Amino acid sequence: MFSSRLKLDLARNPLSRLIEEKRVAGAKVLDLTESNPTRAGLIYPGAEILAALSDASALRYDPTPNGLLSARETVSQYYAERNRHVPPSRILLTASTSEAYAYLFKLLTDPGDEVLVPRPSYPLFEYLAAM
Predict the structure, then answer these.
(1) Does some domain include residue 125?
(2) Is 128 exposed, middle or buried (0-12, 13-18, 19+ CB in 10 A)?
């Protein structure tokens, strides 16, 4: 059913099973792997976000493959404050670390290359490198 490039094991790993057991038992769990900011317990400006969505310009989709220029300018400024010159045109923003790592593996490796991954490490390295 899936590509033969991946040796996909869909069984839940011991950590996933333990987290689920703790949650079912009612334990408070600080899950550092949670990637959904609305479930991670972060405090964010809900009213401001909703107000921004009421702006008619939010209805227009204007894709920017490298990330919003204003966001890339902010990252550039961050580096400038640390005496590093990185122009916004040299900055690529991704939607997630997984996407960023996938780009890096595609950029820096060829099919058949070996990739060394520390353990413990980012849980998706093996799958991203295989793809």
Answers:
(1) no
(2) buried
Token pair in block for residue 94 = 């991704």
Closest to 65 measured CA to CA, from 98, 99, 92: 92
Please count the structural domains in the chain: 1
Residue-range definition of the domain harbouring residue 81: 66-93
Which is nearest to 89 in space by CA: 104, 75, 107, 103? 75
Residue 19's closest CA among 8, 32, 10, 9? 32
Q: In terms of pTM, does the model score above 0.85?
A: no
DSSP 13: P
Structural domain includes residue 30:
no
Q: How high is the pLDDT of residue 1? A: 63
Phi, psi of 59 (to 5 degrees): -80, -10
Residues for the chain: how many in total? Answer: 131
